[in-house]
């Protein structure tokens, strides 16, 4: 073989080896990509890690007295690492898996023990490290589950992974639900949840997660790398009892009137704190839900409740006084006739014109007084800031519409007299109530507030007071006159028949407005808004209140439709607030006895006597007691409670008696009312569970 042939042979061999190697590489790539692709992709997945946010526990929203309006409770997603240290050996796992399956079956009652056993065994065979066992498990359920076989070995050995989720709940369900609101990234924030989200939401933590086969992410470590910071608590101004009364009274009237929607607001006169706010929209025959916050966003013509502003302007300018005479005959203006629905009652005093709600009278008075200088009237409204938003703490407030002569839509013949009785403007119920609140507050105009404190770990980090819009909306004389006129509506005028209560004084004004259609104005098919706005007790105002009912089918006058819920709300608030009672003079004589008291709960009895200013001369640890009058104070005889003996319920009210007897395992059979005077089973005798006991009350 010559040299040339030898060289060529070597070249061919080398080239062949290179080609063969290339084919081998291509084959291996094909094998890795196609044949073993799933395996390597799973391995790649298992090596992927990332940090994810850990949701913080959202802060509570509390009522005025500290009751929970909204809170977060933990819920858990339970997963199992079936290769955890404690069950790594098959012997340990298979010895206890059936016992675990039995426990899970009995606890959740959704699968048989055999089904649970098969599921767990298969997950074990598949090498599951993050097997989903159950979702939406409560904290109390988790405590029980941790005692089950295998899972009681601890989180590192037993393999139980509890992934915490936070569930938002409203303990009082629909009570103040719209005011509490929500904060969802996909929709417009609503209410306190939305407005104070930066405080309530807290700060998210971080956790390192690893992606395992199947694209599932599981925690790398059992503990969170960066712990979340829980949200702060919001202390609202809502009083849960007043809110309950307000919602029920409004809902009852809406159903009775077959109305389209309605709202009611209760506000503290002195502080501007909103104690209750209710809004309902009709969703079907006799069915209403909170769908829209009409109280702060429902801009409409206020109607006759606005006459307060018109008369106040007249009094402030000393254009009239309460004895000035005015005609209630139909008042003709170019293009329109202003008249009273109840007809003319002739020439009467301004006081009578106000408390009978004469449209013709106020239109005539305002038009004659300000016709030559119309801006003088609207300047009062602007000085009172009625054209501005209240700048509330919650979102959604509508901007008021109050015209002036410079507006393009101003009609020099019609606008002024129609504004006088609440038309050609747009105000929300809360805006109207705030103005009445200013009159009750001797002229101090406050912007309502819904939140008074923000707390973290029980400590106040921010405090809110109502913003003062105007220190004095009018002179003392004008305010005093307006207060007297508002009282006269209840004692002599349109509110007497429904609102008047001899136990306490109310001041307020009825309102009936025809509602304009957005497209067709005041259409032939008339729709009305009935309202009543006022405050109580009139001689020392504590609460202001407005009720607005839109589109009632059964009646439409303010006193007839909005009056009953106003009266019901005011009555119940008064009945539950002893601070509003007029002080009763004390007259003690030699044989004075303390107010009689039923036997009953120790703490409740002590609180009642304390509220009445009566000393309790005892320090009993017993839960139930019999009060004894010692003339100088209150002593007690303790009620002995024994799990095996019939309790002595003599002298107790029905509630306490039934509570004790039922807890003892007896079945009370009740006769009469009052306090217990006789029980069929002697106190101290042996209890037979489920045995009936007759109790007689008188």
What secondary-structure arrangement, pairings included, does this model have?
Layout: H1 3-35, H2 37-46, E1 49-54, E2 61-62, E3 68-80, H3 90-108, H4 113-125, E4 131-138, H5 139-145, E5 160-169, H6 177-180, H7 191-195, H8 197-200, E6 205-212, E7 216-219, E8 233-236, H9 240-257, E9 261-268, E10 274-284, E11 287-289, H10 294-297, H11 307-316, E12 325-327, E13 331-333, E14 336-338, E15 347-349, H12 350-355, H13 359-370, H14 374-383, E16 401-402, H15 415-420, E17 425-426, H16 429-440, E18 445-446, E19 451-456, E20 459-463, E21 468-470, H17 476-491, H18 496-499, E22 507-514, E23 528-536, E24 543-550, H19 558-561, H20 563-575, E25 600-601, H21 602-611, E26 624-629, E27 634-638, H22 654-663, E28 667-672, E29 676-679, E30 692-697
Main location: membrane
GO molecular function: carboxypeptidase activity; penicillin binding
Keywords: Carboxypeptidase, Cell cycle, Cell division, Hydrolase, Membrane, Protease, Transmembrane, Transmembrane helix
């Amino acid at each position: 073989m010559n040299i040339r042939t030898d060289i060529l042979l070597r070249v061919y061999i080398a080239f062949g080896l290179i080609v063969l190697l290339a084919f081998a590489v291509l084959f291996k790539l094909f094998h890795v990509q196609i044949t073993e692709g799933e395996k390597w992709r799973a391995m790649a997945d298992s090596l992927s890690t990332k940090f994810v946010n850990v949701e913080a526990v959202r802060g509570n929203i509390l009522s005025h007295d500290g009751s929970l309006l909204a809170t977060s409770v933990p819920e858990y997603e339970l997963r199992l690492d079936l290769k955890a240290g404690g069950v790594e050996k098959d012997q340990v796992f298979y010895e206890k898996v059936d016992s675990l399956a039995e426990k899970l079956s009995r606890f959740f009652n959704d699968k048989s023990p055999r089904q649970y056993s098969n599921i767990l065994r298969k997950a074990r065979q598949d090498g599951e490290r993050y097997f989903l066992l159950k979702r939406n498990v409560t904290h109390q359920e988790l405590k029980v589950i941790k005692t089950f076989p295998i899972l009681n070995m601890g989180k590192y050995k037993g393999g139980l992974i509890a992934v915490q989720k936070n569930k938002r709940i409203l303990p009082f369900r629909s009570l103040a639900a719209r005011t509490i609101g929500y904060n969802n990234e996909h929709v417009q924030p609503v209410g306190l949840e939305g407005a104070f989200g930066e405080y309530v939401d807290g700060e998210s933590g971080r956790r390192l997660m690893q992606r395992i086969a199947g694209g599932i992410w599981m925690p790398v470590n059992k503990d969170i790398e960066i712990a979340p910071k829980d949200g702060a608590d919001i202390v609202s101004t809502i009083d849960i009892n007043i809110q309950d009364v307000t919602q029920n009274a409004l809902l009852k009237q809406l159903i009775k009137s077959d109305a389209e929607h309605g709202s009611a607001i209760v506000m503290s006169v002195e502080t501007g704190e909103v104690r209750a706010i209710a809004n309902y929209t009709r969703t079907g025959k006799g069915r209403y839900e909170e769908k829209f916050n009409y109280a702060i966003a429902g801009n409409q013509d206020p109607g006759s409740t606005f006459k307060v502003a018109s008369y106040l302007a007249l009094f402030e300018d000393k254009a009239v006084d309460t004895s000035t005479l005015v005609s209630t005959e139909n008042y003709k203006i170019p293009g329109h006739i202003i008249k009273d629905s109840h007809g003319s009652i002739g020439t009467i005093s301004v006081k009578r014109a106000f408390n009978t709600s004469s449209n013709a009278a106020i239109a005539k008075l305002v038009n004659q007084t300000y016709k030559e200088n119309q801006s003088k009237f609207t300047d009062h409204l602007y000085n009172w800031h009625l054209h501005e938003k209240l700048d509330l703490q919650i979102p959604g407030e509508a901007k008021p519409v109050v015209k002036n002569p410079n507006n393009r839509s101003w009609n020099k013949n019609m606008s002024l007299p129609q504004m006088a009785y609440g038309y050609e403007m747009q105000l929300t119920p809360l805006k109207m109530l705030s103005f009445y609140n200013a009159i009750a507050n001797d002229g101090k105009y406050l912007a309502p507030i819904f939140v008074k404190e923000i707390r973290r770990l029980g400590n106040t980090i921010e405090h809110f007071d109502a913003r003062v819009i105007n220190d004095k909306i009018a002179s003392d004389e004008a305010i005093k006159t307006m207060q007297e006129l508002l009282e006269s509506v209840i004692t002599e005028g349109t509110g007497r028949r429904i609102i008047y209560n001899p136990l306490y004084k109310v001041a307020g004004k009825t309102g009936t407005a025809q509602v304009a259609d957005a497209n067709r104005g005041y259409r032939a098919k008339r729709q009305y808004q009935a309202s009543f706005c006022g405050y109580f007790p009139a001689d020392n105002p504590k609460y202001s209140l407005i009720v607005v009912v839109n589109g009632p089918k059964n009646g439409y006058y303010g006193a007839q439709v909005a009056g009953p819920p106003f009266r019901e709300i005011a009555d119940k608030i008064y009945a539950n607030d002893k601070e509003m009672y007029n002080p009763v003079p004390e007259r003690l004589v030699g044989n004075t006895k303390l107010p009689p008291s039923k036997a009953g709960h120790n703490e409740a009895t002590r609180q009642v006597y304390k509220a009445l200013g009566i000393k309790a001369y005892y320090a009993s640890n017993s839960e139930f007691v019999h009060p004894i009058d010692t003339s100088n104070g209150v002593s007690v005889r303790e009620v002995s409670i024994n799990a095996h003996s019939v309790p002595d319920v003599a002298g107790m009210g029905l509630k306490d008696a039934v509570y004790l007897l039922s807890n003892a395992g007896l079945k009370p059979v009740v006769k009469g009312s009052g306090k217990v005077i006789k029980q069929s089973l002697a106190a101290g005798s042996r209890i037979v569970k489920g045995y009936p006991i007759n109790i007689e009350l008188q």
